[in-house]
Write a structure and sequence with these properties.
2 strands, two-stranded parallel sheet, alpha+beta, flat
Length: 89
């Protein structure tokens, strides 16, 4: 979030607190990803929770060994987390 939408935690807090509805978010992040290592993406789950998201309900976070790429297994996990929120078939 800090890299793309916020300049600091206060800006993130204000931005996320105003979001309605709290759409489901799945964050899969590699521990070698520059977004994690350099740009503070590891703090994003806390930012979402502070904005009203609930871990395990509409916020899903997985830190995995790797970089800025997903495996087929990761995509399956994301699908299983987000799919129940679908509005149609």
């Amino acid at each position: 979030l800090e890299q793309y939408a916020c300049t600091d935690d206060a800006t993130c807090a204000a931005l996320l607190a105003g979001v309605q509805p709290k759409i489901p978010v799945d964050i899969h992040l590699g521990n070698g990803d520059l977004l994690y290592l350099t740009y503070g993406a590891g703090r994003d789950p806390i930012r979402f929770q502070n904005g009203g998201w609930v871990s395990g309900q509409n916020l899903f976070y997985t830190l995995f060994v790797g970089g800025h790429w997903y495996t087929i297994a990761h995509l399956g996990q994301i699908w299983n987390n987000i799919c129940p929120f679908a509005l149609g078939p």
